[in-house]
């Protein structure tokens, strides 16, 4: 079927009821999809769902769009494809109900032609809502793209082209292509089916042709095999892709066409060799990621998804776990192109609720359709190696919970037996009924309430009762996912030697311990940190806390982000990211970070999701001579710290924590340098330089040009720098961004974890000397001139060329 973008010209308002037409007109806003209505609705301490959603206001939204339907579409099949509407989407065509979908992250299709007026202007209306239904920031509205599909009554179904590679060796690979064709006409049709496979350079490397006869009202699957000589295999380091195209023709010419990319790769797992891709063992350096794109909110704009994957890979990750809902198609495509493995997750709950109006209320009626949608979306993506059927499901420790897990796993396997099935099990949840007694047994001084309970999840997971209760739920799986369950890695291997395990969610502060377990044991195939990328909502769970802070899971308004990512919401790497890279063995040079001196008298309290409050800076607004604690991350045995070339401290690495050295240094402006030594030999250096007063704005686009496609973006890094180009992180000031040309300012903001500044304004206050502006093309070509201003500094100007997409 012809697939056309259907993302322009939408209007959104905060009303859904037709009765409201008798009230004063609701304010509407012209938007281009994907769009996040919740982000635009703003935040408040009252009238919101609290820290879970970052104090964003819930709501109900209505999207409308007018579109022309040519007379020649009569007799065609016209379908709307929605990649994701949050949540409980109701679709109306010309004010007539046409379809619905409960899940906010599933791709679904709505037949339009029964309701169309041909040769006339038509309307489509989409209604959605979000209210007390998520444990994190959900966003709202049509947050993923929409497509219009137009085709012959005989056509390939929207997800009907599926490719597997059942046989692979160095000389030959078999691409088994199954194409589902439906005949919605009134007569029998016979068509010629031509399959062509192209390599990454566009050359046809295999083809096959067969006839197909389909009765009226019938679905038929045609199976063809393409033989690829000397195949280019897909892997993390070499993400080679092929394209399969199927054309249906009859005596009148082409009837329909469908294409998909795919990769040639094998995936196996066992407790001896672990996970093997194309026969080679791979240890998963994993990042859990929420669906939001920081300043863009939940809008899954393709370039933002691609940028996130690239930056995560640059930081040392080779795998992503979607938390806790299916990834967007755009992000999967980016993982395919860039070489990132994926664990795609279905649900955060099954039949037992976690919030007042969450998906548990819809799960019993919808789960089969949601699972089918997940498999249909993921089937041809070589990056996807796992389906995760759930996250911290409350009923997993019960027989009925295990039964549900079996139903989900078998539904997936019936459609896609080529991938691994896992479930992110949290052992603490399996024994929730025992926890009150366990807490009562703890001495009062040792009982720090809910937060300490969360930090102690690993110890609770080690209890024998956990192993007994999760045994059946674990038996359903190909790989047992464990959230904060590293204490079970070795114990369960003794009792279940055939069990393969993966850390589906772990504390970032303990990666040195986790990675040792991963590398030393074949049955432990990887680790997924919480989280790879900071996110909106669950505000403050990873913030450093101090003795005078209230002990609470969340943080008060105006806290916004979770503050627990290796990368912040703008894509900047935090110190923990460099520590992790060192632990992984991917970084040889040491890395310097300094704990915030203003908290020296009341140092932070280490928590599972909270790294130290360190910053990679030697620019501090404190008197000279103030003692500061310096952290150095290194794969070495000793660190020497030099201040302006003079040794001020030496420290061994790994005394209290592997790969980490700490020393107290009196602050003096200048150059602080760390030198790493192994057996007395220097292995690397890192330095920090004190910045002078901000002298100018440095604005750096992430790409020299944009296409006219509204799914493209340019990200502009804005920095306050001194005359030498060093970022000044202690002299933040307001920056204002203006544009001239065919683009809009989609977002402007920082990674400041607690703020009342919206991302939709054209001004913001820098955070640690940084800000991020995001530009989106309007559809026309030309030159965009971006000017950034700040008080007391000369304006900075950059130009970006917008050209038609080829």
From TrEMBL:
In this chain the Glycoside hydrolase family domain maps to 699-799
Q: Which residues form the Glycoside hydrolase family 2 immunoglobulin-like beta-sandwich domain?
A: 164-265
Keyword annotations: Glycosidase, Hydrolase
DUF4982 domain boundaries: 625-683
* Ranges for domain Glycoside hydrolase family 2 catalytic: 275-427
| GO molecular function terms attached to this record | hydrolase activity
**Per the database record, which ranges form the Beta-mannosidase-like galactose-binding domain?**
60-130
The text of the family note is: Belongs to the glycosyl hydrolase 2 family.
Q: What is this protein called?
A: Glycoside hydrolase family 2 TIM barrel-domain containing protein
Q: Which organism is it from?
A: Nonomuraea bangladeshensis
- Lineage in the entry? Bacteria, Bacillati, Actinomycetota, Actinomycetes, Streptosporangiales
């Amino acid at each position: 079927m012809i697939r056309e973008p259907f993302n322009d010209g939408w209007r959104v308002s905060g009303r859904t009821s037709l009765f409201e037409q008798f009230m004063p007109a609701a304010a509407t806003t012209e938007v281009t999809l994907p769009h996040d209505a919740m982000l635009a609705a703003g935040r408040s301490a009252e009238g919101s769902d609290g820290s879970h959603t970052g104090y964003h206001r819930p709501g109900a939204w209505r999207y409308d769009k007018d579109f022309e339907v040519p007379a020649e579409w009569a007799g065609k099949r016209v379908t709307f494809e929605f990649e994701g509407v949050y949540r409980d989407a109701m679709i109306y065509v010309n004010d007539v109900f046409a379809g619905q979908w409960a899940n906010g992250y599933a791709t679904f299709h709505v037949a339009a032609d029964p309701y169309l007026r041909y040769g006339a202007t038509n309307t489509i209306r989409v209604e959605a809502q979000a209210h007390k239904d998520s444990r994190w920031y959900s966003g709202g509205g049509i947050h993923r793209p929409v497509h219009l599909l137009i085709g012959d009554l005989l056509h390939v179904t929207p997800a009907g082209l599926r490719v597997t590679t059942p046989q692979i060796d160095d000389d030959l690979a078999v691409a088994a292509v199954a194409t589902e064709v439906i005949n919605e006409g009134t007569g029998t049709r016979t068509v010629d089916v031509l399959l062509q496979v192209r390599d990454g350079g566009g050359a046809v490397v295999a083809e096959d042709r067969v006839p197909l006869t389909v009765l009226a009202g019938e679905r038929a699957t045609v199976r063809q095999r393409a033989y690829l000589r000397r195949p280019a295999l897909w892997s993390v380091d070499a993400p080679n892709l092929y394209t399969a195209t199927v054309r249906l023709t009859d005596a009148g010419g082409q009837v329909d066409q469908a294409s998909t990319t795919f990769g040639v790769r094998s995936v196996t797992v066992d407790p001896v060799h672990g996970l093997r891709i194309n026969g080679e063992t791979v240890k998963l350096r994993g990042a859990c990621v929420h669906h939001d794109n920081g300043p863009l909110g939940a809008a899954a704009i393709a370039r933002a998804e691609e940028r996130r994957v690239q930056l995560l890979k640059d930081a040392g990750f080779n795998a992503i776990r979607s938390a806790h809902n299916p990834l967007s198609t755009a992000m999967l495509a980016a993982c395919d192109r860039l070489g990132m493995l994926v664990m795609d997750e279905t649900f955060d709950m099954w039949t037992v609720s976690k919030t007042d109006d969450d998906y548990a209320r819809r799960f019993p009626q919808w789960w089969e359709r949601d699972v089918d949608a997940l498999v249909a979306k993921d089937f041809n993506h070589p990056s996807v190696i796992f389906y995760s059927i759930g996250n911290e499901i409350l009923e997993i420790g019960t027989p009925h919970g295990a039964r549900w897990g079996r139903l989900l796993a078998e539904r997936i396997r019936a459609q896609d037996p080529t991938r691994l099935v896992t479930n992110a099990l949290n052992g603490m949840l399996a024994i929730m009924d025992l926890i009150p007694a366990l807490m009562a047994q703890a001495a009062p001084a040792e009982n720090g309430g809910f937060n300490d309970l969360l930090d102690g999840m690993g110890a609770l997971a080690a209890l024998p009762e956990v192993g007994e209760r999760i045994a059946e739920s674990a038996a359903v799986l190909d790989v047992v996912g464990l959230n904060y369950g590293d204490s079970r890695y070795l114990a369960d291997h003794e009792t279940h030697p055939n069990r393969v395990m993966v850390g589906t969610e772990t504390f970032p502060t303990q990666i040195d311990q986790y990675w040792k377990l991963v590398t030393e044991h074949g049955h432990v195939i990887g680790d997924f940190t919480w989280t790879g990328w900071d996110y909106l909502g669950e505000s403050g769970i990873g913030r450093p806390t101090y003795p005078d802070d209230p002990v609470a899971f969340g943080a008060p308004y105006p806290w916004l982000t979770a503050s627990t990512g290796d990368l912040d919401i703008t894509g900047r790497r935090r110190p923990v990211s460099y520590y992790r890279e060192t632990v992984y063995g991917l970084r040889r040079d040491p890395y310097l970070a300094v704990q915030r001196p203003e908290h020296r008298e009341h140092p932070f309290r280490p928590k599972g999701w909270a790294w130290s409050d360190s910053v990679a800076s030697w620019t501090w607004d404190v008197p000279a001579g103030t003692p500061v604690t310096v952290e150095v991350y290194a794969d070495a045995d000793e660190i020497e710290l030099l201040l302006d070339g003079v040794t001020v401290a030496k420290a061994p690495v790994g005394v209290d924590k592997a790969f980490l050295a700490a020393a107290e240094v009196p602050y003096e402006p200048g150059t602080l340098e760390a030198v790493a030594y192994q057996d007395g030999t220097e292995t690397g250096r890192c330095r920090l330089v004190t910045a002078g007063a901000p002298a100018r704005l440095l604005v750096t686009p992430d790409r020299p040009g944009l296409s006219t496609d509204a799914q493209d973006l340019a990200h502009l890094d804005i920095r306050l720098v001194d005359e030498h180009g060093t970022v000044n992180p202690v002299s933040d000031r307001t920056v204002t961004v203006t544009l001239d040309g065919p683009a809009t300012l989609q977002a402007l903001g920082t990674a400041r974890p607690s703020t009342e500044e919206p991302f939709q304004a054209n001004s913001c206050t820098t955070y640690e000397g940084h800000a991020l502006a995001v530009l989106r093309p309007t559809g026309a070509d030309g030159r965009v001139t971006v000017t950034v201003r700040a008080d007391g500094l000369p304006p900075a100007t950059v130009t970006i060329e917008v050209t038609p997409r080829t």
